[in-house]
Amino acid sequence: MAGRNFLFVPxxxxxxxxxxxxxxxxxxxxxxPIFPELTRACLTGLKPVxxxxxxxxxxFPSSGTGCWEAALTNCLNPxxxxxxxxxxxxxxxxxxxxxxxxxxxxxxxxxxGEGAPVERYLASLAADKQHRIKAVLVCQNETATxxxxxxxxxxxxMDSVKHPALLFVDSVSALVSIDFxxxxxGVDVCVSGSQKGLMLPAGMGVTCxxxxxxxxxxxxxxxxxYFDYADMVNANASGYFxxxxxxxxLYGLKESLAIIAEEGLENIFARHTHLARGVRAAVFEGWHLxxxxxxxxxxSDTVSAIMVPDGIxxxxxxxxxxxxxxxxxxxxxxxxxxxxxxxxxxxxxxELMLLGxxxxxxxxxxxxxxxxxxxxxVAAAQKLWRNNAPGVSKAAGAKASIAA
Length: 404
Ligand SMILES: *Cc1c(COP(=O)(O)O)cnc(C)c1O
What we know:
Aspartate Aminotransferase, domain 2, alpha/beta, seven-stranded mixed beta sheet, binds pyridoxal-5'-phosphate, 14 helices, 43% helix, five-stranded mixed beta sheet, Aspartate Aminotransferase, domain 1, 404 residues, single chain
């Protein structure tokens, strides 16, 4: 098909040409005397991305899921209990992994479309007088439902009852796109990956571990080998890896960190809020449809999960968009399969790229019988973007979308 494929799934995201070029390198010896420069550029450059000075960034040759496994197996003992909320496919999969690895999970089942239930986290932690809960798990941005949760509030809940558990946060689809603060929020392990806000291909697990979690990992007995933090940290200390790293991925990461530094993290967050507001304007004011996220406070600035009307299969919208318009939209996963489609709006993108996705989704919906006004989503997004400069808060954006 002529022209570009429009990639609007919430990961993998568009890889900037600069990153692609930086990755087109000959292979080199990863034990050479100059290799540590590359390692250090990546690991040091990641610290501001996590907003940490005391945490230790670690790169695994995996996807984000590998970093979930690393967090659990490095910091816990066999059979340990963890507390986790489940409100979408990714928070579900993390719980599932805990169970498959033999950990006991206290699950806070929450309706899909809502975020982390802070009051219920608090109640469980307050009731756990013997401190059997060793880790608290939170998915910062549930990509399946387009819901962002308040990680700082979960930390406050833990502190208010002086609970010593570790705080593990899945920030795979938030890091570098939605604010994340490792040190300020007292996060012990942040789990992320290369193919979302970091604008790289999939294949690198990007995680950050607090001093407290690293200390605990020294005596934690859950079986692990490939994902051992100590092996990584020891090798990284001299600028090397315990096994062969992906050299192109490291060059790509170095370039993506340079791009991020040039734009500035706060500007990147503001751009994501601005772009997301345009998508929400298309959904609410243009198409008169609903998001899966049930309240403005949950609206995600990186992915919108758009409910299709009864009698329409979301999968048909996605298939039509792909086959006819060369547009890749995100599918409804598991419980919400067929009920929605998702527009990923994170990473290297701007208003006009997103207008392409909104226009394509609009055409695909019309083609499969969704009763919307042709051009309405595009017009609503255009109006919002023309009337608002980037840089307003998410809360203001949510209100504007609903009021208009
Ligand atoms: C993409 C994603 C994952 C899984 O990451 P992989 O890199 O596919 O392993 C986990 N959690 C969330 C919230 C995600 O968006």
